[in-house]
Amino acid sequence: MPADRDGQTREGAPVDREAYLRRWSQLHGGTAATGVVRAWLSGAHALARPLAAARVPPAAVTLAGTALAAAAAWLALAAGAGGAPALAVAALVAAGGVLDNLDGAVAVLRGRTSDRGALLDACCDRVGDAACALVLLGCGAPAWLAALAGGLAQLQEYLRARAQGLGVGDVGVVSVAERPVRIAVAAACAAATAVAPGQAPWALLGAAAWAGLGAVGLVQVATALGRRL
Fold first, then answer.
1. Whether pLDDT at 104 is above 80
2. pLDDT for res 1
3. Among the listed ranges 9-13, 138-142, 167-171, which one has the minimum average pLDDT value?
4. Phi (first) and psi of residue 3, to 5 degrees
């Protein structure tokens, strides 16, 4: 993968999947891209290639994903559970999640990775997590449980950010409650309230699952980071 003197990929240079996975690992402190992470990133590479070829700015992808997540939260709170609006909420959450995963891929493929881009992405991710928690609230989850689920997600990522400020270079560990999981739970719950209304308290179950996984994930991340400090 051709690079400039700062180690950045030159814009326009071809980046195959393996080169992309290596660059992702470098950007995440040497974290290995294996298993589910590798499959997820391989899909992102395939979807990001047309955007990179069209020279779409990575920041535009980041902001578009955040806008879709915010729209999903607004619609869920305004329309409530069930019906066509809930299906639209699920679609918005899923589409926002896809774009959230593509911004970094587009940045790598275009050789546009930067500290400013990473900061924007981190801020938008936190907005996206809050939006997913609001989707659960709008779909019928108890407010305290939706707040707990969202708070655990924010705390997990705060621990990572604080550890990086203290010199930890990698993400610590890939927990059971990473952003793709949180996005999938919110989208699935919204869709379930439309496809199978009344058959189960979908939002309650989703928020409980998110909170439970979030608690486990927080322990995983705290333990891994504690060993590195």
1. yes
2. 31
3. 9-13
4. -140, 160
Q: Is the pLDDT of residue 17 over 80?
A: yes
The closest of 118, 228, 124 to 179, measured between CA atoms, is: 124
Q: Is 115 exposed, middle or buried (0-12, 13-18, 19+ CB in 10 A)?
A: exposed
Residue 30 has a pLDDT of: 74
pTM of the model: 0.87
C-alpha distance across the termini of the chain, in Å:
33
Tokens in use for 27? 């950007």
Record: fold of 17-228? Four Helix Bundle (Hemerythrin (Met), subunit A) (1.20.120)
- CA 45 to CA 131: how far, in whole Å? 25
Domain boundaries, the chain: 17-228
One DSSP character per residue, 124-189 reads: HHHHHHHHHHHHHHHTT--HHHHHHHHHHHHHHHHHHHHHHHTT--S-----TT-HHHHHHHHHHH
Q: Average pLDDT, whole number, for the chain?
A: 89
Cα–Cα distance, 31 to 219 (Å, whole number): 19
**Tell me, what amino acid is at 146?**
A
